Structure formats: structure tokens, C-alpha cells
Amino acid sequence: MKIAFFSTKPYDRIWFEPMGKEYGFEIRFYEVPFHEETVSLAKGFDAVCIFVNDYVNAEMIKQLYDMHVKAILLRSAGFNHVDVKAAEDKIQVLRVPSYSPEAVAEFAMTMLMTVNRYTHKAYNRTREFNMSLHGLMGVDFYRKTAGIVGTGKIGQAMIRICNGFGMEVLAYDPYPNKDLDVEYVSVQELMERSNVISLHCPLTSETKHLVNADTIAKMKDGVYLVNTSRGALIDTDALIDGLVAGKFGGVGLDVYEEEEGIFYEDKSNEIMRDENLARLMTFPNVLITSHMGFFTREAMQAIAKVTLENAYALENGLPLVNRVGSEAVK
Ligand code: NAD
After folding, report:
1. How far apart are the CA of 18 and the centre of ligand 1, in A?
2. Residue 120 appears among annotated catalytic residues
């Protein structure tokens, strides 16, 4: 099987190269992202393998189909960047539904604790022997209320972490999990009662701008918000208004509405033209990271393993357990 990998970085090769050889796959690593202008590079390959900021729209599906590409292998759990309906009956879309939910949940709590306890500022201060504590006061999370939006794999890992912190945990999910020892409430009640809100639902037409001017107005003053899910869950303009108004204790964003083309790249020598991103960087209580919640050794290894297992299953006519069908999108 010949597979064209897109948006690859040196760290992708660490696991994919040796594992791909074991399967006998012929892998070509492209550094360029996958979009309309690079889709032609898929010619002659059986599958393309893409990452979170690549995308495949209906027109690209048609082109891939005409090139006899059989599968789109996603190196991710989320599939909002692929027109799954257009792919139905033409090309298989296979994802990695779970690799390390703990990696993302642990990172979400890392972001929360950073903006709460200002370790990023303390690090810089003490390196210059500025041992002043002024401006670095945080709050205890112990006995505070955490609201978890989406109680799938990552949400559940986050619930375990919040329980470990001694927090009261609320959750919202349209499909509550009866096995979880958590208080399910409406999304509105969650926004109203939580001191800490962590987003762990997928991006869909329903969840787009779940955090908006109305929901922000319902939140407690001094609320901590973290988004490790997908950027468009938050209306960035409304978030900036809320930050300016002093609504938030702290905000952690591992994902950003307009991250495509910016995240994962070194833009340090360029003029930042995204004014919202530039504005967000100016708030002392906002931490932005470059979509790296997944980035642990365990998760990367698991992503490589499951992605290549998906390809192997396709090649050998085995059940496609990680197929994303049109029933997955509303
Ligand atoms: P999952 O499928 O296990 O869980 C998602 C949960 O969200 C499900 O329980 C589902 O019922 C729920 N949900 C669906 N619609 C909802 C709504 N309207 N409101 C609230 N909940 C809703 O997925 P997961 O593995 O836990 O991943 C969650 C998200 O995390 C993914 O969709 C992906 O976008 C993101 N993610 C980010 C990173 C990262 O590196 N930052 C890594 C992996 C996944």
C-alpha cells in the first residue's frame, strides 16, 4: 500500500517510519498541508494521511476518487475537517478514535494551573532574580466547581483529574453516561455554577460558538476556561470582550478558531496578521499553546499504531472498526 502523509514534522517520522516498514507500506512524507493546491500530490497513492489542520472538502473528495485513492487516514480523533458525507460510498475515512485521553486531559489541567498560579510568569521572573510575588496570586481549586462539557474519553479523564483535586464536578453531555459518578446538569446550569469550565465535546454545527456572548454572561465572574477541543467552540470576539471586561480569572486555549496555517509553524519572523490572536496574546491571564494537548510519547506511538492498523485493515479487507460514516455527522 502506498500512503502519502501530509503536514508531517520530524517527530511524525519517529514512529511512522519503522512501523510502516514492518507493515511493508510505502510511505511518502510531505511537509506541506493537505488542501486544494496540494491534493494533486495524492496521485498514484492508495491513501492519504492527514492531520488536524488539513482539510478535505467535497471537491477534493471527488478529485481523490478520480485518482483512485481509497482512504483518508486521519492522524486524529476529530473529523470535522473532512466532508464525511461527500466521502460516503467513495472513499473510506478512518480515524484514531482514542490514543491517550489522559494526554489531553492532563494538558487541560496544566493550562488551567498555569493561568491560575502564573508559573509561566514565575519562571521568567526568578531567572532574572526577581523574587517578587506581586501579581502572582491564584486561587485554590480544591472544593471549587468544575464543569466538564462532553463526557467522552477525554472528558472522563478530566473528571478523574478534577476529582483528584477535590473539586465538585458537574457535567453536560447530550448523551449522559450513567456509569459516571458525576452530576449531569444542563449546559446553562453548568455555565452558571462552574468556577472552572473545560470543553471536551467535538465541533459540530450544534457546538460551534457554544461559548458566546450569552453563555459568557451567564458564567461566574473570575471563571477559568480551558479549550483543548476545537477552536470554533468559542466565539473569539465574544471571548475577547469578556476578557476586556475582566470576566475571566484565566483562559487556556490549546486550539483557536483560525489556527489553520498558523499553529504548528514558526511564524516568529512574520507580521502577525490575525488581529484576534495578536490581541489574545496581550492578556496576562491567557495562555495559548499550539494544539499540543495530544503531544506525549504514548499518544504519538498510539496514533501511529492505530493509523497503520487502519490502513492494514483496509488493505486486507478486515472490518474497518475506526471508519467514520455519514451517520457520525448531523
Ligand atoms: P469522544 O467522542 O470520546 O467524546 C466526545 C463527547 O462529546 C461524547 O460523549 C459526546 O456525546 C459529547 N458531545 C457531543 N455533542 C455534544 C454537545 N453538543 N455538548 C456536549 N457534549 C457533546 O471524544 P474525545 O476523545 O473525548 O475528544 C473530545 C474532543 O477533543 C475531540 O472532538 C477533539 O476535537 C478534541 N481533541 C483535542 C486534542 C488536542 O490535542 N488538543 C486531541 C484529541 C482530541
Report:
1. 30
2. no
Distance CA 236, CA 26 (A): 42
Check: CB of residue 195 under 8 Å from CB of residue 157.
no
| pLDDT exceeds 80 at position 324 | yes
Residue 281: closest CA among 221, 215, 318, 236: 236
pLDDT of res. 38: 98
Q: Name the catalytic one among 102, 291, 323, 327.
A: 291
For 314, residues 6+ apart whose C-beta sits below 8 A from its C-beta are 1, 47, 70, 71, 92, 94, 320
Phi, psi values for residue 287, rounded to 5°: -120, 125
3 state DSSP class of 304:
helix
**Distance spanning both ends of the chain, measured CA to CA:** 32
Residue 241 and residue 94 in contact, taking contact as beta carbons nearer than 8 Å? no
Nearest CA to ligand 1 atom 2: 152
Q: CA 63 to CA 36: how far, in whole Å?
A: 10
What is the H or E stretch that residue 48 is in?
Answer: strand 47-50
Percentage with pLDDT > 70 across the chain? 100
Binned at pLDDT 50, 70 and 90, residue 329 comes out as confident
Distance CA 258, CA 268 (A): 17
CA distance 300 to 62: 30
Is 273 in the active site?
A: no
Name the E strands within 100-237.
145-149, 168-172, 183-184, 196-199, 223-227
- Any idea what DSSP says for residue 258? T
Condensed to tens digits (0 to 9), the pLDDT of residues 213-226 reads 999 999 999 999 99
pLDDT at position 209 is 98
Three-state SS at 60: helix
Find the mean pLDDT for residues 105-126: 97
Give residue 328's pLDDT.
85
Asked whether 155 lines ligand 1 (CB < 6 A), one says yes
Helix, strand counts (H, E) of the chain: 11, 12
